[in-house]
Design goal:
The complex is a heterodimer of chains A (166) and B (299). Chain A has five helices and five strands, in the order E-E-H-E-E-E-H-H-H-H. With 166 residues, chain A is α+β, with helices and mostly antiparallel strands. Chain A folds into two domains: 77 residues, Beta-grasp domain (Ubiquitin-like (UB roll), Roll); 73 residues, [2Fe-2S]-binding domain (DNA polymerase, domain 1). Chain B folds into three domains: 47 residues, Uridine Diphospho-n-acetylenolpyruvylglucosamine Reductase, domain 2 (2-Layer Sandwich); 115 residues, Uridine Diphospho-n-acetylenolpyruvylglucosamine Reductase, domain 3, CATH 3.30.465.10; 111 residues, Enolase-like, domain 1 (2-Layer Sandwich), CATH 3.30.390.50. Chain B contains twelve helices and 14 strands. In chain B, 55% of the residues are buried. The C terminus of chain B is likely disordered. Bound molecules: flavin-adenine dinucleotide and FE2/S2 (inorganic) cluster (2 copies). Chain B: This is FAD-binding PCMH-type domain-containing protein.
């Protein structure tokens, strides 16, 4: 028993029409069909958060979703955050500046979880910040530098927002 | 690991889904948010030939308020329910429990109906809906069945749903004024399944007598647990701290937790009492502060 599906997915701002099988996860589709290997797979059971991508702007686990279910939706992976020449976006810049990564395995998922916080929550409390990254496991950093990076990213956001238009 | 090969169906209407279930129910699986089913597929603990995805059926995604019930569509996500004023006002215990369910990324996809149909005694909502006497509405090509929560959860991960049936919606009676609810749990990491969780909802009379009490517990029994005996000790009594302690003792007596890697049965039993006491005190404080029926229901 098997099935194939033609799907139209907006990946990082570009609509892709692809064929996929019913059982293919969104994570495997992104990695194997589109070559976007920035999406990492740790546990494939929803526990680690390494595979986090944004689905219509909301963080979801791409290991717990079928590629066919992304038909008609928009997906942002870590590759979609940086500029055309690979310039880091403010969240990535903050992670870099705070040494908020060591091995980097958790980083794509962590960065996207923080990106969603920065985009969706106007004035996050400590609780909001814990909630945003609470489902993402990092075995290296101990989270201290990650929290520092989040503070920096939020600060960068408020500076951008308050720059007066000329 | 990767799932076994299966045929994926993505029906656009409920009627289409029921046709597919009538045909493939025996060797098929319904896919809702996938936050429990896809791990089972990935580990090949589930090996269906057919998977029927409900994701395109808009009719199952609505939250409605009728005169006599709050109606939650099976495909309403945790994320959606958390932001619903109708849920907060008419089912404060549901609202209080929702922030304790899993992590943000899981709440964005996981559904209320999926949690109920999965029937996990460690999950918040099956216990909460048991305590609230909710009605589960099951549909199949054969017709519609209304199943009371007490008849719905049969054993660990076993519900009264038949192979060809879908859970379509959950109905909860709205709360009267002077009602307060609270939920709290003890676990290793917020968002993971807790060692034990407890929710309480209290309705008080004008002279602060308990007129209705509902107590839900997770992780302490082989099925979603409602602490009926403890509820009975509260009804008709004046609000008083000693009352919560007495109910907690009854809970410690009545629960039947299992031991596992994370905690012994005795520890879970003791924790169950403590968190029930806390939930009751918080629910009573909210009920006292709330005369109108619309309430704050977090925590
Ligand atoms: C890391 C992690 C942590 C979690 N922590 C918690 C937690 O703390 N508390 C908690 O409650 N849950 C937790 N969960 C589970 C989560 O809440 C699931 O979302 C939920 O149990 C199932 O809902 P779903 O919509 O994802 O259903 P699915 O996974 O799609 O389905 C679950 C089961 O129900 C059946 N089903 C689903 N919908 C219907 C329907 N409408 N009619 C008939 N059958 C149906 C499916 O066939 C399947 O057997 C966690 C999950 C993960 C991965
Ligand atoms: S790989 Fe998806 S959560 Fe771990
Ligand atoms: S940097 Fe290594 S797991 Fe987070």
């Amino acid at each position: 028993m098997s099935s194939t599906h033609v799907i139209d997915v907006d990946v990082n701002g570009e609509v892709r029409r692809c064929e996929t099988t019913g059982r293919t996860s969104l994570a495997d589709f992104l990695r194997d069909a589109l070559g976007l290997t920035g999406t990492h797979l740790g546990c494939e059971q929803g526990v680690c958060g390494a595979c986090t991508v944004l689905l219509d702007g909301q963080p979801v686990r791409s290991c717990l979703m079928l590629a066919a279910q992304a038909d008609g939706r928009s997906v942002t992976t870590v590759e979609g955050l940086s500029g055309v020449d690979g310039e880091l976006n403010p969240v990535q810049e903050a992670f870099c500046g705070s040494h908020a990564l060591q091995c980097g395995f958790c980083t794509p998922g962590m960065v996207l979880a923080v990106q969603a916080l920065v985009e969706n929550v106007p004035e996050p409390t400590d609780h909001d910040i814990d909630e945003a990254i609470g489902g993402n496991i990092c075995r290296c950093t101990g989270y201290v530098q990650i929290r520092e990076a989040i503070a920096k990213a939020l600060e960068a956001r408020s500076t951008i927002e308050t720059v007066p238009a000329r | 690991m990767k799932p076994v090969d299966f045929e994926l169906h993505r029906p656009e209407t409920l009627a289409e889904a029921l046709e597919l279930l009538a045909e493939h129910g025996a060797d098929g699986k319904v896919l809702a948010g996938g936050q429990s089913l896809i791990p089972l597929l990935n580990f090949r603990l589930a090996r269906p030939d057919h998977v029927i995805d409900l994701g395109r059926i808009g009719a199952l995604r609505a939250i409605r308020r009728n005169t006599d019930a709050l109606v939650i569509g099976a495909m309403v996500t945790y994320h959606q329910a958390e932001r619903s004023a109708a849920v907060a006002e008419t089912a404060p215990l549901v609202s209080a429990a929702l922030p304790h369910v899993a992590h943000q990324g899981i709440r964005a996809r996981g559904t209320i109906g999926g949690s109920v149909a999965h029937g996990d005694p460690a999950a918040e909502l099956p216990a909460v809906f048991s305590a609230l006497d909710a009605t589960m509405v099951a549909v199949s090509r054969r017709g519609t069945r209304e199943i009371a929560a007490r008849d719905f959860f049969l054993a660990n991960l076993v519900t009264a749903l038949e192979e060809d049936e879908l859970l379509a919606e959950i109905r909860v009676a709205p709360v009267p004024a002077r009602t307060g609810a609270a939920f709290n749990e003890v676990g290793r990491r917020h968002g993971d399944f807790a060692l034990a969780g407890a929710g309480a909802q209290l309705t008080l009379t004008d002279d602060a007598t308990v007129s209705s009490a509902r107590i839900a517990l997770t992780g302490v029994s082989a099925k979603p647990f409602r602490a009926t005996e403890a509820e009975n000790t509260l009804v008709g009594q004046r609000v008083d701290e000693r009352l919560w302690r007495r109910a907690a003792d009854v809970v410690r007596r009545d629960v039947d937790p299992a031991a596992d890697l994370h905690a012994t049965a005795d520890y879970r039993r003791d924790v169950a009492g403590t968190i029930v006491e806390r939930a009751l005190a918080a629910a009573a404080a909210r009920a006292l502060g709330n005369r109108t029926g619309s309430m704050e229901a977090t925590g």
